[in-house]
Design a protein that fits this description.
about 50 residues, mainly alpha, transmembrane helix, transmembrane, membrane
Length: about 50
């Protein structure tokens, strides 16, 4: 599961960085949505294999 956390960090980190050091609450929702989508994608990929 640690690999998933790393993947989420790699995906969400730059997004938060692009939005700024003090992002509004809405951007956290966007980051959360991206993290959830990333997690679902990983599950789908593992399901196919």
């Amino acid at each position: 599961m640690s690999g998933v956390g790393t993947l989420v960090t790699i995906v969400v980190g730059p997004v938060i960085g692009l939005l700024g050091d003090t992002p509004p609450p809405g951007s956290f929702l966007v980051a959360g949505a991206i993290a959830i989508a990333g997690g679902l994608t990983v599950r789908l990929i593992r399901g196919v294999r």
